[in-house]
Amino acid sequence: MPDSIDNLLPLSSLTVDNATAALAQGVAALSAGQTVFDLRNVQSVDSSAVSVLLAWQRAARAAGVVLELRNLPAKLRSLTKLYGVCALVSPSLAECADVSSHPAAEAATTHHHHHHH
């Protein structure tokens, strides 16, 4: 193993066709000590990509490590936003931090004003 672990995941797609394989690959990388996944090679994604990312994060938490996902393709980023899991998938991404415009988040924060007796 070279000193600098290559963070690039050799995945060109994250779709329903290879979700299981991609998941296994990510988990294997995690157990090998890789905690940054670079997804710049990923060309095609569908909604199952989101489940794969979440499963990777669960595996990372189970292993007690913090997994950082880098260079998500734009389509994948918009999918994670669509499902409201952007911050879960990649807390370090700047575009995930902006939850103030998310209606669900606002609804959740306004609920603690009910003093009905």
Automatic annotation (TrEMBL):
Residues spanning the signal sequence: none
Lineage, opening ranks: Bacteria, Pseudomonadati, Pseudomonadota, Betaproteobacteria, Burkholderiales
PROSITE patterns attached to this UniProt entry: STAS
Pfam families with a match to the protein in the record: STAS_2
Protein name: STAS domain-containing protein
InterPro entries referenced in this protein's UniProt entry, alphabetically: MlaB-like_STAS (IPR058548), STAS_dom (IPR002645), STAS_dom_sf (IPR036513)
The STAS domain, residue ranges: 1-85
Gene3D superfamilies linked: STAS domain (3.30.750.24)
